[in-house]
Amino acid sequence: MLKSKKFFKMAFATTMAAMVLAGCGDDKTDENIDVLAQIKEEKKIVYGVKYDTRLFGLKNPSTGDVEGFDIDISKALTEEMFGDDVKPEFQEVTSKTRVGLLNNNKIDAVIATMTINEDRKKEVDFTDVYFDAGQSLLVKKGSKVQGIKDLKKGTKVLAVKGSTSAVNIRENAPETEVLEFENYAEAFTALKSGKGDALTTDDSILYGMAEEDPSFELVGGTFTEEPYGIAVKKGNQELVDELNKALQSLKDSGEYDEIKDKWIKK
Amino acid sequence: MLDFSILTDYMDVFLEGFKITIIASFIALICSFILGTLIAVMRIAPFKPLNWIGTVYVEFIRNIPVLVIVFFTYLAFDFGGMTAGIIGLTVYTAAFIAEAIRAGIMSVPRGQMEAARSSGLTYGQAMKSVILPQAIKIVIPPLGNQFINLVKNSSLLAVVAGGDLMYQGDLISASTFSTFDTYIFVGLFYLILTIPLSFGVGFLEKRLARSN
Fold first, then answer.
1. CA B197, CA B152: separation in Å to the nearest integer?
2. Separation CA A229–CA A130 (nearest Å)
3. pLDDT digits (tens, 9 = 90+) for A140-191
4. With an 8 Å Cβ cutoff, are B159 and A179 in contact?
5. What's the whole-model pTM score?
6. Pairwise CB contact (< 8 Å): B1 & A23
7. How far is CA A263 from each of CA A55, A184, A244, rounded to the nearest angstrom?
8. ipTM of predicted complex
9. Using CB atoms, which residue from A22, A99, A186 is nearest to B2?
10. What is the DSSP letter of B127?
11. How far apart are CA B121 and CA B128, in angstroms?
12. Which residue from B75, B173, B181 is facing A22, i.e. has the nearest CB?
C-alpha cells in the first residue's frame, strides 16, 4: 500500500517537472527580440552553418577553420551589410538543430544548405534564393541503381535526419526503405560500407562526396528543385530585407559568381 | 504546456520505436548477463590464460565509449542497425556486469570455496552450488544499475538507424520542429521502462535479503 503511494508520488513529481520544463521552453521561443538591432549592438552576427558538408560548410580539422560556399557567402554578406563594424561568427548546426537554435536566439541567421519550403516558412522567415540545388542520388560506380525508378522494394536509401530529401524520397520512391543518419559524413560512411544502395540529398552536396571518393557517382539527374535560402527568426523582416539587398549587390558585382566558381565545379 | 497533439498524431511512430527499444534492451540484457557472467568466471578461474583474456576484455571494452563500439559493430560488419546496436550494447554492458559479478564473488569469504572443495566438490560444482548463490545477493543492486543504464544506452541505436524510440523521436522532431515536446515524450517513454525496472530491482533486493 505504502509502496504504491510512493510510486504515484514519484510519477506525479516527474510529470510536474516535465510540465514546468515544457513551460520554460515555450517562454523562450515567445521572446521576441529585434535581431538586427542586437547584431548592431553586439557588433557580431552569428551564422548557423554546417560543419560536416563538403563544399558548403566543412570544418577543417587541421586548421580548425570552417570552409565552404556558405561560409564565404556569410562573410561577403556581412561585409556588404555592415562593413567592418560587425564581425561574422559561426556556430555549428545540423538539419535537426537549426530551427530550434534560431528560435532560441542562439544564432542570428542560418546559412546551412537549407531548402525553402512551405512548412518551414511557417517556422522561420526566408530570404531570396541564394543557391539552386536539386535532389539526386549517389551510388557506387556500376550500381544497378541508375535513377529513382530503380529504387524498388528491397532497396535501401540512406538520408540525413531532418532533411527535406528524406521526405522527398519517400514520396518519389515509396517502396524503398529509408535509413536516416545524424549527418552526411555518417550517411556517406554507411553507403561506403554497403548499408544501402544509394545516398540521397542535394546534388551540390553529393558532388562534394563524389569528389572525395571517385568510386562513387551521381546518377539519374535531379528529381526535385531545392532552392536554398537564408533563414532568420520569424518577425525580422528588416534583417531579411538587409540580407536580400546585400545578396543582390553580391550578384551584381560578380562576387557571388566568384565564390560559387571557387567551390562548385560541376 | 506540452503539445500533446504530437503524442497523439505520432502515437504509431512512438510505439514502433518503443517496441524496438524494448526488444533490443531485452535481448541485450539477457545476452550481456550471460556473457558478463562467463567473463567474470574467466577472471577468477584458477587458470592464468583465462584470467588474462577476461582482464583484457574488461579493460579494453569498458574504457571505450559505447557510441564507438556501436558504430564499429555497424560499419565493420554486415549487420543491420538494430542487430549492430544490440551486439554493441551486449559487448559493452557485459564488461560492467562482469566486474559487478566478480566483485560479488570475491566478497564471498575464501573459506567457503576451501570448505566446498575439501568436501569433494569440483571447482565448477563449488562455484555453481556454493559461491554463486551467495554472490548473487550482493550483485543484485549493481546489476540493476547496469540494466537501467543498458535501457538508456539503447538510445544509441538511433545513430545507426536502428529504428528505436530515440530514432523515431529524431524523425518526429525533425518533421514537426517541436524538438522540445518530442524529446519530453521520448523521455517519458523511457521512464515507463526504467521506473518498473528500478522498482523490480529494489523488490528483488529486499526479497533476497529476507531469505538470509
1. 12
2. 6
3. 999 999 999 999 999 999 999 878 888 899 999 999 999 999 888 889 999 9
4. no
5. 0.73
6. yes
7. 6, 18, 22
8. 0.71
9. A22
10. I
11. 10
12. B181
Domain positions in chain B:
4-210
What's the CATH number of domain B4-210, 1.10.3720.10, 3.90.1300.10, 2.30.110.10, 3.50.50.60?
A: 1.10.3720.10
Predicted confidence at residue A22, as pLDDT, reads 53
Domains of chain A are: 34-132+228-263 (3.40.190.10), 135-219 (3.40.190.10)
Q: Which residues of B110-143 are buried (b: 16+ CB within 10 A; e: fewer)?
A: eeebeebeeeebeeeebbeebbbeebebbbbebb
Interface test with B, best of A164, A186, A233 (most B CBs within 10 A): A186
Q: At B41, list the grid cell.
A: 568466471
* Interface contact flag, B170 A96, Cβ < 8 Å: yes
Task: For chain B, list residues whose CB is within 8 angstroms of any CB belonging to chain A.
Answer: 1-2, 74-76, 78, 81, 159-161, 167, 170-171, 173-175, 177, 179-181, 184, 187-188, 191, 195, 199
Q: What are phi and psi of A23, to 5 degrees?
A: -55, -45
- B191 and A14 within 8 Å at the Cβ level: the answer is yes
**Beta bridge mates, A49:** A92
